[in-house]
TrEMBL record, chain A:
Key word Cytoplasm present: no
Pfam name, any one: BPD_transp_1
PROSITE patterns tied to this protein: ABC_TM1 (PS50928)
Recorded topology in the membrane: Multi-pass membrane protein
Gene3D superfamilies for the chain: MetI-like (1.10.3720.10)
SUPFAM superfamilies (alphabetical): MetI-like
Main location as per UniProt: membrane
Region described as Disordered: 1-25
Residue stretches of biased makeup (Acidic residues): 1-16
Any one GO CC term of the record: plasma membrane
Record-given protein name: Binding-protein-dependent transport systems inner membrane component
Annotated compartments: Cell membrane; Membrane
From TrEMBL, chain B:
Protein's name in the database: Binding-protein-dependent transport systems inner membrane component
Species classification: Archaea, Methanobacteriati, Methanobacteriota, Stenosarchaea group, Halobacteria
Gene3D superfamilies named among the record's database cross-references: MetI-like (1.10.3720.10)
Biological processes per GO annotation: transmembrane transport
Source organism: Haloterrigena turkmenica (strain ATCC 51198 / DSM 5511 / JCM 9101 / NCIMB 13204 / VKM B-1734 / 4k)
Positions of the ABC transmembrane type-1 domain: 110-321
Family the entry assigns: Belongs to the binding-protein-dependent transport system permease family.
Listed GO CC annotations: plasma membrane
Pfam families: BPD_transp_1, BPD_transp_1_N
PROSITE patterns per the UniProt record, alphabetical: ABC_TM1 (PS50928)
TM segment ranges: 12-31, 112-137, 149-174, 194-219, 264-282, 302-321
Length: 331, 339
């Protein structure tokens, strides 16, 4: 994609000067779509990790949207208590000590999980990108020094204890707030890496060319730097999501976060407190939430690794054959 | 240049610690209704059972003892007092529930947590560095692909899930290890074999489950080694007829491990933080369990004190790592600018 940028800049320059007809919006959107969605998807199909990861995430997504709508919200006494799994087709995964089907609970826990992950990933990755890009681009300036000192300070403060203290004081119940809190300790490491990426992109000749041509810093940041960073940011969003799932489920499991709705961690807590480890009739109550968390983070890790190889491979230009005016050789 | 770097790092560490203590002060102030009100509620809740009543002046006095905050003074005075008591007197306040200072509670528990976290770090990182290197040497073999999947799988297992499974298989099913505590009952304390054995047995499972945290490093190590293996200087080394062991350790190993340094730094903080969850699962009485118990009863002074001490330990660990790193990689101490 790097070879397209200088042309684009020239094009805009000429647009301004000669008042030429600009590329139609639909055409531009189609190109963007090809570049960012179709081409990576084609490459991704060849990487088993990306395929499996995407499949797992899609299944969870369906659970959280269609599943919630298809399966009734469980209430206590719906079914016999501690029904073993794979016996009754009505509750395939068995039931818990309150007679609630476990499968339905797992499904109804998904939407809140997604809310948490969404808020956390947006906060951590957004913050990291903002700080990293800004300080990388203003390298050596006062702002850079200040931002990096703050980043170094927050890297050092142990995140989980801080989050725990915040939770203990404020007792958040809203999944978005929990996500934001968990995302807060996540950004500094990423910000540092983004900064070093920006530093190396800055040295690229096309960015220098844009600067000489007098393109504003904002435009350069948006069109050149951010575009190059997108793959990196995608991969890290997946990893940040995994971390937020780990931590939130862990904190629910310990009973540190106040129990509000269904949650995999809450289920684990109830099962664990009920001595599920030494009661064979309760094994499934503990095992299925464990398996669910494992699967979800397995999917996210696979996805991030698959995407990493997709973005790193320089094959993308070859695959984006639908773009007719992007046929130039790779530099 | 060396001295400059040293001064910069130490200064940064001090600044970080200062920022953390300020942060705990801000957190106290942010508590619903302010620290006095929040603690008053706690003290009243605690007094509910007993018949003796408590006057507002006594509460004021207690709040000041517990938190080092004089709640009716202006904020900047409070801030100054709080900072000076933490920095000059090493006084983190008093526990609301036990008759003990936060500092003594933490000092008693900290060595036990350090024992687990240090071993967990060492085991996790050693295993993953060796594994990653072997995977890289056998790139594209069956061993490589199988262990990649295994590592990704382990990496997707939260350490507390690993802990639960360990307890289930090793403590409940087969009873190799005890389910909780840090030493067996009725064992004489001191420098004797039974005591040592008991400590090791009790610490084994928490250490194992925490070392799962570091395993993701194996893939990073694999990637780094694969990249180093393709470098020209390695071919030169081979052509010079250097021994394989020397190539493996000094050429490949060293250059592959160096980029993992930052990850290792952040790992220190991560392992220590995770002790809250791991120690609760194994009911291992370290700092983590202290924090957990403090949350259950809203023992704010203990919570805030632990946050400060956790940060202090992390800062010191990172500082040591940072300063010794200069000896391993001359580029860092020369430039002092590790981008």
């Amino acid at each position: 994609m790097s070879n397209e940028r200088p042309d684009d800049e020239l094009e805009t320059l000429f647009d301004a000067d000669i008042d030429r007809e600009p590329t139609p919006r639909s055409q531009r959107l189609k190109r963007q779509f090809d570049l960012y969605v179709v081409a990576p998807a084609r490459v991704a199909m060849t990487d088993w990790r990306a395929v499996v990861g995407t499949a797992i995430i899609t299944i969870f997504f369906l659970m959280g949207t269609v599943g919630v709508w298809l399966v009734d919200r469980p209430t206590s006494g719906d079914a016999p208590v501690l029904e073993p799994p794979f016996q009754n087709p009505n509750y395939i995964l068995g039931t818990d000590t309150f007679g609630q089907p476990i499968g339905a609970q797992l499904i109804h826990a998904t939407p809140d999980m997604f809310r948490m992950v969404f808020a956390g990933a947006v906060v951590s990755v957004g913050f990291a990108a903002l700080v990293g890009i800004l300080s990388g681009f203003l390298r050596g300036s006062k702002i850079d020094t200040i931002l990096m000192s703050i980043t170094d300070i927050i890297i050092t403060i142990p995140g989980l204890p801080l989050v725990i203290v915040l939770i203990a004081i404020f007792q958040p119940r809203d999944p978005y707030v929990i996500g934001v809190l968990l995302g807060l300790d996540n950004w500094p490491g990423l910000a540092r890496t983004v900064r070093s990426q920006v530093l190396s992109i800055r040295e690229e000749s096309y960015v220098e060319a844009s600067q000489i041509m007098g393109v504003s810093t904002g435009t350069i940041l948006r069109r050149d730097v951010l575009a190059q960073l997108m793959p990196y940011i995608t991969v890290n969003s997946a990893l940040a999501s995994r971390r937020i799932i780990f931590e939130s489920v862990g904190l629910y499991f310990l009973g540190i976060l106040p129990f509000t709705t269904f949650n995999w961690g809450v289920m684990m807590n109830i099962a664990y407190e009920g001595q599920a480890l030494s009661r064979p009739d309760m094994y499934h109550f503990l095992a299925f939430p464990l398996l669910t968390i494992f699967l979800m983070s397995f999917g996210l890790v696979l996805f991030s690794q698959g995407m990493d190889s997709v973005f790193n491979v320089r094959l993308r230009a070859r695959h984006s054959s639908t773009i007719d005016d992007d046929g130039g050789p790779e530099p | 240049m060396q001295g400059n770097y040293f001064a910069k790092r130490v200064g940064q560490a001090l600044l970080t610690f200062f920022a953390t203590v300020t942060l705990t002060f801000v957190l106290y102030q942010m508590m619903p209704g302010g620290p006095a009100q929040a603690l008053r509620n706690q003290i009243l809740a605690q007094q509910m059972g007993s018949s003796n009543t408590i006057s507002p002046e006594q509460i004021e006095q207690l709040v000041e003892n517990y938190t080092n905050l004089e709640s009716d003074a202006p904020i900047y005075v409070q801030y100054f007092q709080y900072m000076s008591s933490v920095f000059l007197e090493f006084d983190l306040g008093e526990s609301l529930y036990e008759d003990a200072t936060v500092t003594s509670l933490l000092a008693e528990r900290l060595p036990w947590s350090m024992l687990i976290s240090v071993y967990a770090m060492v085991i996790g990182y050693t295993v993953s560095i060796v594994l990653g290197a072997v995977m890289a040497f056998k790139e594209k073999s069956r061993f490589d692909s199988v262990s990649s999947v295994v590592v990704i799988g382990l990496n997707s297992t939260p350490y507390y899930v690993a802990g639960i499974l360990f307890i289930f298989f090793f403590s409940i099913r087969y009873q190799f290890f005890p389910t909780g505590g840090r030493v067996g009952l009725g064992i004489e304390e001191g420098f004797n074999l039974a005591f040592m054995q008991s400590i090791a047995l009790h610490a084994a499972l928490p250490i194992l489950s925490m070392s799962v945290l570091g395993l993701g490093t194996a893939l990073t190590m694999r990637g780094n080694s694969v990249r180093v293996l393709g470098e020209d200087y390695l071919r030169v080394a081979e052509l010079r007829g250097l021994r394989n062991s020397r190539i493996a350790t000094q050429y490949v190993g060293r250059n592959a491990i160096l980029p993992m340094y930052t990850q290792f730094m952040i790992g220190i903080a991560g392992v220590l933080s995770s002790s809250v969850i791991v120690e609760e699962i194994f009911s291992y009485p370290g700092v983590g369990l202290l924090v957990y118990d403090a949350i259950q009863v809203r023992n704010y002074p203990v919570l805030m004190g632990s946050l400060i001490v956790f940060t202090l330990v992390t800062i010191v660990a990172i500082l040591i790592a940072d300063l010794t790193y200069g000896f391993i990689d001359p580029r860092i101490s020369a430039g002092g600018n590790n981008e």
